[in-house]
Specification:
The protein is built from two helices and five strands, in the order βββββαα. It is of the alpha+beta class. The protein has one domain. The chain binds zinc ion.
């Protein structure tokens, strides 16, 4: 799958194939990093931290985002999903930071 992305370090816009690399284990499960590399400055853009502890929250983020789009015209339902979305986003980044610390990754 090719993704068009703008580098946030240099002004390059590039289209690249997502690469995958196994970076270690977190809570006994392998951690697969999905990333794109800028062809100019070699900056690594992480698109996904694939490991069960993170996926649990990423799936929740995806689901609530979808529900927010579905119910964008029903404020009372939308608000409920927005709250769930924010919690899931927060938990997702918290687990990602734990994984990074655990594996001593500076990405
Ligand atoms: Zn770049």
């Amino acid at each position: 799958m090719y993704i068009l992305i703008k580098c946030d370090v240099c002004p390059t816009q590039f289209k690249a194939k997502v690469k995958k690399i196994k970076v270690g284990y977190y809570k006994g499960k392998s951690v697969i990093l999905h990333y794109l590399e800028c062809p100019v400055c070699k900056h690594i853009h992480v698109t996904k931290w694939n490991t069960p502890a993170v996926n649990k929250w990423s799936d929740k983020v995806f689901m609530t985002e979808w529900n927010m789009r579905m119910y964008r015209k029903k404020p009372e339902v939308y608000e409920k999903y927005l709250l769930e979305y924010e919690i899931a986003k927060y938990q997702e980044s918290k687990v990602i930071n734990e994984v990074k610390q655990c594996l001593h990754l500076k990405i």
